Amino acid sequence: MTRDLHEPLEAGPVRTTVTLLQDRIAARFPERGLRKVAGDLLILIDEVESGAGATQGRIRAARVASRVVMAVILTGTVVALVLAVDDTLRADGRINSSLDVLPLIETLINDLVFAGIAVYFLWSFPERLQRGRTLALLHQLRSTAHIIDMHQLTKDPEQLRPSFTPTSVSQPLELTRDEMERYLDYCSELLSLVGKTAALCAEESRDAVVLDTVNSIEELTTGMSRKIWQKISTLPPS
User: Fold this and answer.
1) Torsion angle, alpha carbons of 176, 180, 183, 188, to 10
2) Are 225 and 77 within 8 A, CB to CB?
3) What H or E segment, with its residue span, contains residue 102?
4) Does the pLDDT value for residue 53 go beyond 70?
5) Phi/psi at 139 (nearest 5 deg)?
6) What's the Cα-to-Cα distance from 46 to each of 24, 89, 152, rounded to whole Å?
7) Residue 163: CB partners within 8 Å, gap ≥ 6?
8) What kind and span of H or E run contains 94?
9) How large is the greatest C-alpha to C-alpha distance in the chain, in angstroms?
10) Over the stretch 8-45, which tens digit does the pLDDT of each residue have?
11) Global pTM value
12) How many CA atoms lie within 13 A of 25 on its CB side?
């Protein structure tokens, strides 16, 4: 796809957006833990950005090394097969019975199977090297999404209604109607930015496992954000 058709998602603009959101949270809710969650998300974005170049360098080196080893293995396999055929025909230049072919067939099968396993392992090794670090970052992002969900979980719009009667175990709300709306909106924005950070991890990867994990995080954050907007829609009128 050409540059005119596709502009890649970049860490810089995502980081700028999270920084602005953290400042907005700090301005309205300086004592709330949601501001610290935004700070944790900035750290994860920095890890994605700083690790991308180093990881790509290691992957390129691993890819070159694996291709060289693959060439050596394939060359050795071909040489071994040629020698095996030569040993079988060395006696008088022809095969006298089918029993003479059985050792050759066994050698061919063994060499081809082991060479195939080695080639498959070496071909996928660079992608597996990248996958481990990326999946660790995605796991942290999933945990961050659940932490954000915990922050909004106790914000119940029903507590703002005049008819609400608290019980002995009801948590004090300590938020006005407008503050709750703003707080829930911040949670929704943070969840969206968690999804964007996950998408950053997939920008340089075509690994099916990584892409599936990114999609699951985006679906998770979208579902959580949908629940938050359902809460916002039930807030009493101003």
Assistant:
1) -170
2) no
3) helix 102-153
4) no
5) -65, -40
6) 20, 64, 25
7) none
8) none
9) 104
10) 788 889 999 999 999 999 999 988 899 999 999 999 99
11) 0.71
12) 23
